[in-house]
Design brief:
alpha+beta, phage-related protein like fold, 37% helix
């Protein structure tokens, strides 16, 4: 922990201590006693001293950044003039991260407002780059569709053309006239749907300098948001919500049974996908579906499931990776338990960075502070021929 961070936490504790002295008198509907006033003034004197040190260090960092050409990297200048890439994102700066931490711990937005960056249109503050990156690194382990999909960072709604009929090509003899081809397109509107997370933490825990508030928010949000996103990326209807793989893909095979499928049906399903997509395709299914397939054998008595040879890589089914996800339905009558396709033809639209609001008053009577994390995103299949689904027979 750097010195500025230590000073910010010390300042927050002193301010809370002073508030506690005031609250005792307020709760008894009286003025402070002489002893209480003396304690209060002593605490605030310490607060002023620490605050002066904070301002001096902020001024120093601001001056150092100006000397670096305002690259907002947040790193002190290298006296050798070497090392490190220059960055221009203000959300990466040490100054912004310190101000953001102060906001999370105390609710004080003075420094953030003064910097005039990171303000979200919905009233929150954009997460610093390192916090956002922590979430993004963790998400693909849970929201597996993100690992393979095309992710677009958008600032506003966008209409993207989707091919329904790509036309045809024709062989012609020398000097023969060209024959017209008429591809057709629909337009897919990528908008933004809000995913939210609201958590309450005690004031004592927040004030504890040993508590990693950044890490706690990032880990918890990544776990919960990853599950919620994969469910929509797989099962979203596209009707006033994210469009998922099941709704946007084309039918590859309907199993003969309502509650089971065979190894031969898996092969037929795999080859329902054209070769140019099949060679880059990924299987997507629930854990229970994976357990069923792992027990299947070919006519030679060999398991058709192949364990991954490298740690961290997915297992293989019929030569292509299989990803387990909480987002897919299990095997049931009329359900769609399997997706197979080239998932780069599934597009995720991410609207800006994640944003955090601190709710000071909502839970104040119980000595807690609320944190509301939210992001906005959409998703849709862009080419249904590239992604196939297998459905079970209806009951």
């Amino acid at each position: 922990m750097n010195k500025l961070q230590e000073l910010l936490e010390k300042r927050a504790k002193l301010l809370k201590k002073a508030r506690g002295i005031l609250d005792v008198a307020d709760s008894e509907n009286r003025d402070m006693t002489a002893e209480e006033r003396s304690k209060y003034e002593a605490v605030m004197a310490d607060f002023d001293a620490v605050n002066t040190d904070v301002q001096l260090r902020r001024r120093q960092e601001a001056a150092e950044e100006e000397m670096r050409g305002n690259d907002f990297s947040g790193n002190r200048p290298n006296p050798e003039g070497e090392g490190g890439e220059e960055r221009s994102n203000p959300l990466e700066s040490t100054e912004y991260r310190s101000a953001y931490t102060q906001f999370l711990q105390t609710g004080d937005t003075t420094e953030l407002r003064a910097m005039s960056i990171g303000v979200d249109a919905n009233g929150g503050y954009l997460a610093p780059t390192d916090l956002d990156n922590s979430i993004m690194r963790a998400l693909p382990d849970i929201a597996v569709i993100r690992k393979y999909a095309k992710v677009l960072n958008l600032r506003h709604d966008r209409e993207i053309p989707i091919s329904n009929n790509r036309g045809s090509v024709y062989w012609k003899g020398e000097a023969e006239a060209f024959e017209e081809s008429t591809p057709t397109y629909d337009k897919m509107a990528l908008t933004a749907y809000k995913l939210t997370y609201l958590v309450k933490l005690s004031e004592e825990l927040i004030a504890d300098s040993g508590y990693d508030l950044f890490g706690e928010l990032a880990t918890n949000y990544a776990d919960l948001a990853g599950e919620a996103q994969d469910i929509k990326f797989c099962q979203g209807t596209g009707n006033n919500e994210i469009g998922g793989l099941i709704a946007g893909s084309s039918l590859g095979l309907t199993a003969a049974s309502t509650l089971a499928f065979t190894a031969d049906e898996l092969i037929d399903f795999q080859y329902s996908l054209k070769k140019q997509y099949r060679n880059k395709a990924t299987w997507i299914g629930a854990t229970d579906t994976a357990k069923v397939i792992r027990k299947m054998k070919d006519s030679q008595g060999r398991y058709i499931w192949q364990a991954a040879l490298t740690a961290g890589q997915p297992d293989n089914l019929l030569g292509r990776p299989f990803e387990e996800t909480l987002g897919m339905p299990t095997i049931a009558a009329g359900a769609t338990p399997l997706i197979f396709g080239d998932l780069k033809y599934y597009t995720i639209a991410q609207r800006g960075s994640r944003s955090v609001q601190r709710l000071n008053e909502l839970y104040a009577t119980s000595g807690q502070v609320g944190y509301r994390v939210f992001e906005r995103l959409d998703g849709s299949v862009m080419l249904s021929d590239a992604i196939k689904k297998m459905t079970m027979a209806a009951a």
